[in-house]
Amino acid sequence: MTPRAKAKPAATAGARTASTRRPAWQGSISFGLIHFPVALYGVTTDRRIAFHQLHDADGVRIKQKRVCPADGEEVPYEHIVRGYEFEPGRYVIVERDELDALQPERSRSIELEKFIDASEIDPLYYDASYFALPGEGAGAAYALLCEAMAAEDRAAFARLVMHGKEHLVALWPRDAVLVVSTMHFEDEITNPAQLPAIEPAGSLKKKNRKPAELNAARQLVSALSGDFDIADYRDEHREAVLELIEAKAKGRKISVPATPQAERRPAADLMSALEESLAGVTGGAGKPARPKSRRRGNRGDHRAHTKAH
Predict the structure, then answer these.
(1) Is 106 domain-assigned?
(2) Is residue 305 part of a domain?
């Protein structure tokens, strides 16, 4: 099942993006004997607040230089080469033309290998997403692919080389626009068993779990359940930082109150913490009814909502 969009049609937004941004990749999409040009544009706008490093004495911006530690001299960019450290302190130099010679055809084309149910993909594997916009003369083939995939409720699987790295990618229609989501390979996902843990995840066996605790936890999950709309949320921290910057730019003196955060510790008594949490959610008006069992959906049912560059 391909992801569904709640937002307004993205075609217009994608076109506006294309007029103001440079594409992250340009090439083509191929399936069967159909072949048409596309350009990929990041689906997000970077809203992070950037700070520069200044000299505190005069407020002048600091410059960074590439300096060789052997002689202390600045190294011009044209004399910087790529080196891979194969042993501590030992490097093999790889030239740009040597890397270019290894670029496969996938660096210029996205060849759709198969069409799949998007729910088969674990969201853990998604990396970044891009709008794929059609090139000149590609509108008919592009629209046909979008409409066919939507009618069949399918996503597509392919490979792509971008920024010097090969990616697995999933393509899916969002309204009238194709979205390309890059994915991690399986060996790029860290096995949780390799992570440090005081108590291994899943070490609590069912035989040690108290039924009353599980029932109360399910009641709390049920009481806190509701509809979700991403438009209801905003970056409150970013807004607060912007307000601080605006106030300081206007010359206002800012006083920073000492507000140490209270340390939160794991509950010593799970059952008491669950009951108190339930009372806070329900207003003490009684406990929610025992939740009904729900059939577990496919792990990919979270859909493809990913970060982007």
Answers:
(1) yes
(2) no
> pLDDT for 153-169, tens place per residue?
999 999 988 887 889 99
190-196 long-range contacts, Cβ below 8 Å, gap at least 24? none
> In this structure, are residues 173 and 1 in contact, taking their beta carbons and an 8 Å threshold?
no
Give the span between the Cα atoms of 86 and 67, in whole angstroms: 23
Phi, psi of 141 (to 5 degrees): -65, -40
**Domain of 151?**
11-45+101-188
pTM (2 d.p.):
0.69
Q: The tokens of 22 are what?
A: 């440079």
Strands 25-31 and 109-111: parallel
CA distances to 84, 105, 278 from 92, rounded to whole Å, are 5, 26, 61
Nearest Cα to Cα of residue 130 among 17, 257, 280: 17
Share of the chain above pLDDT 70, in %: 78
The number of folded domains in the chain is 1
Q: What angle do CA 162, 168, 170 make, to 5 degrees?
A: 105
DSSP letter assigned to residue 117 = -
Give the pLDDT mean for 247-252.
86
d(CA 278, CA 224): 9
Tell me the backbone φ, ψ of residue 128, rounded to 5 degrees.
Answer: -130, 155
Residues 128 and 40: beta-carbon distance below 8 Å? no
Q: Which residues contact 177 (CB under 8 A, 6 or more apart)?
A: 9, 10, 11, 14, 131, 132, 133, 146
Q: Are 38 and 142 in contact (CB under 8 A)?
A: yes
CATH number for position 179: 2.40.290.10
Label residue 106 exposed, middle or buried (CB < 10 Å: 0-12, 13-18, 19+): middle
Q: 3-state DSSP call for residue 180? A: strand
What is the pLDDT, as a whole number, of residue 253? Answer: 82
In-domain check, residue 149: yes
